[in-house]
Design goal:
Layout lengths: L1 H4 L2 E9 L2 E2 L2 H14 L8 H14 L6 E8 L8
Antiparallel strand pairs: 1-2, 1-3
Length: 80
């Protein structure tokens, strides 16, 4: 539903010299956007940061990376 119907929120993040730039501001907007559309995020800010760090480490990413962090309601329910 998030990809096809736009039912979600997203932020574009930039990794520069091992740091995610303006991370707090991005997370503020992401969580505010989710609240505005009644989307249960399902993770705390700390868990999101931890997940981002895991992804970056698993892929050996340290610089010059653009990430798109998307939070959606998941798959669209099938109509009966």
């Amino acid at each position: 539903a998030g990809f096809v119907l736009g039912d979600g929120v997203w932020e574009g993040l930039r990794l520069h010299k091992g740091a995610l730039l303006f991370l707090d501001a991005h997370l503020d907007r992401l969580f505010a956007g989710a609240r505005a559309i009644g989307l249960d995020f399902g993770m705390t800010r700390g868990q999101v940061v931890e997940a981002l760090e895991v992804v970056l480490a698993a892929n050996g990413m340290t610089d010059g990376v653009h990430l798109r962090l998307m939070v959606t309601r998941g798959e669209k329910a099938a109509a009966n």
